[in-house]
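Record type: monomer structure entry
Structure origin: computed from sequence
Chain ID: A
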Amino acid sequence: MLWSDTKKRKKTTTNDADIKRVAESEYNLWVYDGYEGSITGWLIPYVEPAYKIELRDSEYEYKNGNYYVIATETNFSSSGGSRKITLGRKIG
């Protein structure tokens, strides 16, 4: 979502506390400071969907943490084997 994008929601309550809670939840869903997409590595260490992986990066330390693995794809060629890991949300 781009900064210029606008999200509209119909409110179902007039309670300010409920509206604030829903707005904060929506904000946290769309504002994200972790990695997105996928990474490709070797076959070891073994990883499969539903695993938790830890990523560390000295250039972008704010992105360090644990990520949920939502998909993996294993490829073999004459150069060897590789595993593409599709990252989910940062979980810690």
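Annotation 1: The radius of gyration is 18 Å.
Annotation 2: The first strand starts at residue 38 and ends at 41.
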